[in-house]
Amino acid sequence: MNFKEKIFSISSKNEFEGITMDIFHYQMMNNNIYKNYVHLLNKKLVDIKNVDEIPFLPISFFKTHRIDSNKKNNPNNNILFKSSGTTTGLKSKHFVSDLSIYNSSILKGFEYFYGPIEKFKFFCFFPHQIVHSSLIYMVNYMIHKTVHNGSIFIPSYQENFIDIIHNDMKNDTNIFIFGLSSYLLNFIENKNICIKKNGLQKKLIVMETGGMKGKRKELIRDELHYILKNYFHVKHIHSEYGMTELLSQAYSKKNGIFQCPPWMKIYIRDIEDPFLHIENNKIGGIDIIDLSNYLSCSFVSTDDLGRKINEKEFEVLGRIDFSDIRGCNTMI
């Protein structure tokens, strides 16, 4: 069954829940790893009647198994994404058998929050030579979609970057600065010239993704955002939340408060009872429904700590103790 068109046209809670149950049944039929995991929990398919009863697969399974729901897999269309990290342990692997789904998720997810992508010029602070990274693939895709606007990767030695920014703002260009936190901080420290506060900052969006992950001393979010806001003279710093094991991203436009696109949903589970989801404003592990993952697994229990504020908003508060440092928001 092709869910792609339905997923990216969801417009209501009822539509989300209906498609979610369809994908759950599809994955129980086609994903042996997920099916066996659900059976080991003594869960019967007939007993799972609504979205809130669907079990979530621990994210560690992506390290040890190929998570695949595509029985009609064409190897020529496959791409393998790998997580990076600072440990020597196993890395997560996400086998993506249809890149068009990831492309649609990137584009439609971004445009859901920010509008038409072709209106932006991206300056991207990432190590673009890294292979097998879902994040770098996403950034490359964004640059490709807006290359006519001059979107580029910015090397740390780019001497005239400040001049480019100032000229673009004068030319009424919407500028999107997107980067790993460590790369953005390194760039700021290497430059003696700051962005000018000239009233044109309304055309400038600055987005960071993730912490230092061993590249620098870790900073709390407020400290990181304070440095970035002062350098770029913007009121808010935006953030992106995604990972190798998912094909969708959540976005924050200020204060680290994230929202999901319509085909993605967050639950918070109890730390001591991983099968119990807890109420809003309590801290626990983050479980994610990502319907764009229908060819792998759409129900993933992550190693991240979070707090759900309401049905639309949540915070990411760090990592659960003893879990590996990994994810597509760190480059080694």
Q: How would you characterize the overall build of this protein?
A:
By secondary structure, the chain is an alpha/beta fold. The protein has 9 helices and 16 strands. 29% of the residues lie in helices and 23% in strands. Strands 1, 5, 6, 7, 8, 9, 10, 11, 12, 13, 14 and 15 form a 12-stranded mixed sheet that branches. Strands 2-4 form a two-stranded antiparallel sheet. A hairpin with a 5-residue loop joins strand 10 and strand 11. Helix 2 (13-30) packs across helix 3 and helix 8 packs across helix 9 (221-232). The longest helix is centred in the N-terminal third of the chain and has 18 residues, at 13-30. Residues 323-332 have low confidence and may be disordered.
Low-confidence stretches: 323-332
Could you tell me the number of beta strands?
A: 16
Helical stretch tally = 9
Helix amount, in percent?
25-40%
Supply Rg.
20 Å
First and last CA, distance: 38 Å
Q: How would you classify the helix and strand content by structural class? A: alpha/beta
Tell me the strand percentage band.
15-25%
Average of pLDDT:
88
Q: Strand-and-helix sequence, N→C?
A: HHHEHEEEHEHEHEHEHEEEEEEEE
Report on the biggest sheet: 12 strands, mixed
User: What global shape is seen?
Assistant: globular
List keywords for this structure.
single chain; 332 residues; alpha/beta; two-stranded antiparallel ribbon; 9 helices; globular
Short overview:
The protein has nine helices and 16 strands. By secondary structure, it is of the alpha/beta class.
